[in-house]
């Protein structure tokens, strides 16, 4: 059984427990694996920092987990990775991580082991793990995307090349007589190959029989079997599975091997969790957490919207928070600009990465819960000095994947720009204009310096913004220490009536 990218979505966890127990009733030896990103995404995480999720994982008996990128979201906080360390320490299962180096992190290094044990201990991190399943030795390795360095806050935690790390871990297991190997990965099924993904892993690393994946939130209703290597030559089969997101599904997989450890048969499916009834014990346990969350959710901000502010997703050119201007993106950036100007009146405009906007806001009174769910990462507001040329470089990166989605797609306030998605990446931005006090616009001067506002994650180079990272390293960034959700809360309270519009701030001329 497998889950991935649950992102602290616990409202249906009692149904997930039922689904797991039903599978175990039929197959008592079935393992339960998680491919990462338990952290971040809802008020449960904001309030309990993963401990609520962990109580249910312990209750139902997870066997192994690897780390997702969001497990490293809190690294830049004053406490660093303390919450992640507590998560590992309190887990009634071990963790497998073959390409993550925790040795320089004060919170995590004592929890890591360099050797593969005869029996893995709970609350420990190993480069590989061996378990007995149906009287057979099965090896497990764990891989986390190297992109974590750009899209989270790992700080002193480092990520090694996934292909090389996997090859080493596989060889170490094979030397111990293991010929059935499962990779639990947080790479993405078909994610950006410039970083890493499961399809590439399956083709390049011999010896991996099963990949239990996460990160790309892919709904693989049936397993995908890779039978060719990177050169197109026939190879031993590698079975890939992934179970979408938010605990909506419990993935199941049965694999049959021959004596050589080769996959000769497999079957798998996704069980839709919402079709199950609540497990009574889990439902009762959830109440102690959900009651606290309900109090927080229901606290009004003072703002109200007459219509729902959607947060669409589409990777085929349709409306998406990660490829289009949206009402919600405009509201958030307007709030950032408003707050930044209170501190520094010279701020000209604000930028917000689409990947940081996580949920829509329903029509009606806007509550703390709405705001926290929309902006769950607690990023702080920062100001940055950039030249117009650097701003163009940033906007080029923003739309480089268009019309496909990119978490780094920037929403804007106090400016507008046009681009052509049919042109080569890096040469797409056509016009850039900054908004004046009288609501008129002036072309951005590539030689002039501007003060902009964004979140600290982006300001430090998150989502691959090397131009911002350079500015940060040169001391051109000031972290204002104001949390993003609090900024939005204050802004909607100030507006009272919230009615943002899509108004041509970001225009792809290819779609005209």
UniProtKB/TrEMBL annotation:
InterPro entries with a match to the protein in the record: 5'-Nucleotdase_C (IPR008334), 5'-Nucleotdase_C_sf (IPR036907), 5_nucleotidase/apyrase (IPR006179), Calcineurin-like_PHP (IPR004843), Metallo-depent_PP-like (IPR029052)
Positions of the 5'-Nucleotidase C-terminal domain: 316-469
Domain of life: Bacteria
A Pfam match: Metallophos
This protein's UniProt keywords: Hydrolase, Nucleotide-binding, Signal
Keyword Ion transport among UniProt keywords: no
UniProt domain Calcineurin-like phosphoesterase: residue ranges: 1-218
Ranges for region Disordered: 296-324
Sequence similarity: Belongs to the 5'-nucleotidase family.
PANTHER family xref list: 5'-NUCLEOTIDASE, 5'-NUCLEOTIDASE-RELATED
Name listed for the protein in its UniProt record: 5'-nucleotidase C-terminal domain-containing protein
Species name: Fictibacillus nanhaiensis
Lineage of origin: Bacteria, Bacillati, Bacillota, Bacilli, Bacillales
């Amino acid at each position: 059984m497998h889950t991935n990218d649950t992102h602290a979505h616990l409202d249906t966890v009692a149904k997930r427990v039922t689904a797991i127990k039903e599978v175990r009733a039929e197959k008592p030896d079935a393992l339960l694996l998680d491919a990462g990103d338990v952290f971040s995404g809802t008020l449960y995480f904001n309030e309990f920092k993963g401990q609520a999720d962990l109580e249910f994982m312990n209750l139902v008996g997870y066997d192994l987990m690897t780390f997702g990128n969001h497990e490293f979201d809190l690294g830049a906080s004053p406490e660093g990775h303390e919450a992640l360390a507590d998560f590992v320490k309190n887990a009634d299962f071990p963790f497998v991580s073959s390409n993550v180096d925790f040795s320089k992190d004060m919170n995590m290094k004592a929890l890591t082991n360099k050797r593969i044990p005869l029996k893995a201990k709970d609350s420990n991190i190993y480069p590989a793990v061996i378990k007995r399943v149906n009287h057979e030795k099965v090896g497990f390795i764990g891989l986390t995307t190297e992109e974590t360095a750009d899209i989270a806050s790992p700080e002193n935690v480092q990520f090694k090349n996934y292909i090389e790390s996997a090859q080493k871990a596989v060889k170490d297991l094979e030397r111990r007589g293991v010929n059935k190997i499962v990779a639990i990965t947080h790479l993405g099924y078909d994610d950006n190959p410039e970083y890493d993904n499961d399809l590439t892993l399956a083709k390049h690393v011999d010896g991996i029989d099963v990949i239990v994946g996460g990160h790309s939130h892919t709904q693989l209703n049936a397993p995908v079997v890779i039978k060719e290597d990177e050169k197109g030559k026939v190879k031993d089969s590698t079975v890939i599975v992934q179970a979408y997101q938010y605990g909506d599904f419990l993935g199941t997989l049965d694999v049959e091997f021959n004596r050589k450890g080769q996959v000769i048969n497999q079957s798998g499916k996704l069980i839709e969790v919402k079709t199950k009834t609540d497990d009574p014990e889990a439902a009762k346990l959830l109440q102690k957490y959900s009651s606290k969350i309900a109090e927080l959710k229901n606290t009004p901000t003072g703002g109200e919207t007459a219509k729902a502010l959607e947060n669409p997703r589409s990777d085929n050119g349709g409306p998406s928070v990660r490829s289009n201007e949206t009402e919600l993106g405009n509201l958030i950036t307007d709030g950032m600009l408003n707050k930044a100007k209170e501190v520094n009146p010279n701020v000209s405009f604000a930028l917000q990465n689409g990947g940081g906007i996580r949920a829509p806001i329903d029509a009606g009174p806007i509550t703390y819960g709405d705001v926290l769910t929309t902006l769950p990462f607690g990023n702080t507001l920062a100001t940055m000095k950039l030249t117009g040329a650097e701003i163009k470089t940033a906007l080029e990166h923003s739309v480089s994947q268009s019309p496909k989605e990119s978490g780094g797609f920037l929403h804007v306030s106090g400016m507008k720009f046009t681009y052509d998605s049919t042109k080569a990446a890096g040469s797409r931005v056509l016009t850039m204009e900054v908004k004046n006090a009288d609501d008129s616009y002036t072309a951005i001067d590539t030689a002039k310096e501007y003060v902009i506002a964004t979140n600290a994650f982006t300001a430090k180079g998150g989502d691959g913004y090397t131009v911002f990272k350079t500015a940060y390293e040169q001391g051109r960034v000031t972290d204002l220490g104001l949390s993003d959700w609090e900024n939005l809360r204050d802004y909607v309270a100030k507006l009272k009536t919230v009615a943002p519009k899509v108004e041509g701030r970001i225009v792809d001329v290819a779609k005209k």
